[in-house]
Amino acid sequence: MRIKYILIPVATLGCGKTTVARILTSLYPKIWAQVQNDDIAIDKSVKGKGQKAKELVSRSLEKILGSEDYDVVIIDKNNHMNRERDQLLKDIDEYLSLASIKQSLKKIQVKIIILNFITFELNQNKQNKERLFQSTSKRVLDRKDNHQTIKVSISKPWKVNMIMRGFINRFEPIDQTDNRYDSIINLDSVSEKSSLENAKKVIRYFEMNYPNAINRVPTDDEILQVFNTCLTILNTPTDTYPSTATKVTKTTKIPNNDILAMIKRSSKRSKVEPDSKNKGQPLVRDLKSSKITKPS
After folding, report:
1. In terms of pTM, does the model score above 0.90?
2. In what residue span(s) does the tRNA ligase kinase domain sit (predicted)?
3. Residue 185 to residues 124, 153, 229: CA-CA distances in angstroms?
4. Do 187 and 119 touch, CB atoms closer than 8 A?
5. Kind and range of the H or E element at 230?
6. How far apart are CA 282 and CA 286, in angstroms?
């Protein structure tokens, strides 16, 4: 039975979710995919709410269900509020229900994994909230206009900071006991080079718990080189909403060639400290029956 994985970040602006996603998809370019929310523009001529969210889910799940290659997709969106996560799960379940009809001859399990970038209390701890703001705002301001939607030269630093404080103030932590998710990987959002360490932690977690989703464990040096390369990528809108789109703005793709060549030159495994395995058996989604069951 083939297992597919959906990775959902829970973060605010500047936590490094896109950088982590790029590191992982660069290290595993034919296994892991990334779909960015900022790359999907809204078609304002279409009435009804949630069109962008549904399109994001549709594109993301098509990556893993419509391909024999990809096993993992990262839905690159902040998902910083409970209602956003609830809607995302609803859209995923709706898509899987339709996919179960179209793929009745295939039996595929889908696991949903949370990448939890904020693991400390914010609402009751002003010091933590300020620490998060100072760390993430510095990253956003340092990248200047290198973002799909936030342009410092246009919005000005004070307005960017206002937007970021709004995200932090609205943030609602993930429920670590929520059984709608198969796993939750707790990450770091404030330390220096946290994206580098977070990518390593995700790889270690998959090595210990879901080794079928990675074909090898890269060395620390390899991950560092990929991290440095990903920091140089320009962020430009790459798409428009498909229903009435007449123009599509293209951008340079992530330069994987050099990264792939580097990875092929090394077959050594990195020395990592394994994370403890999850207690109990995770839930899985069976596309053939569209039911949530315990794995055998």
Report:
1. no
2. 6-188
3. 23, 35, 24
4. yes
5. helix 220-230
6. 13
pLDDT at 183 over 90: yes
Phi, psi of 123 (to 5 degrees): -60, -35
By the 8 A CB rule, do 31 and 141 touch? no
Task: List the one residue out of 227, 260, 257, 256 whose CA is nearest residue 18.
Answer: 227
Q: Give me the half-sphere count of Cα atoms (radius 13 Å) on the Cβ side of residue 192.
A: 0
pLDDT by residue (tens digit) across 62-103?
Answer: 999 888 889 999 999 999 999 999 999 999 999 988 877 666
In DSSP notation, 116-177 reads E---S--TT-HHHHHHHHHHHHHHHHHTTT-SSS--HHHHHHHHHHHHHHHHHHH-----TT
Residue 233: CB partners within 8 Å, gap ≥ 6?
22, 252, 254, 255
Torsion angles phi and psi, residue 33, rounded to 5:
-125, 160
Structure tokens at 246: 């007449």
Specify which residues 291 forms β-bridges with. Answer: 286
Cα 59 from Cα 35, distance rounded (Å): 7
Residue-wise pLDDT for 146-181, tens only, equals 565 666 666 678 888 898 999 999 999 999 999 999
Q: How far is CA 245 from CA 36, 50, 51, 82, 239, in A?
A: 18, 18, 14, 31, 9
77 residue type, one letter: K
* Sole residue written with tokens 């609205």: 170
Residue 296 is encoded by which pair of tokens?
Answer: 């055998």
Inter-CA distances, 137 with 2, 13, 15, 37, 150, Å: 41, 8, 9, 20, 12
d(CA 223, CA 217): 10
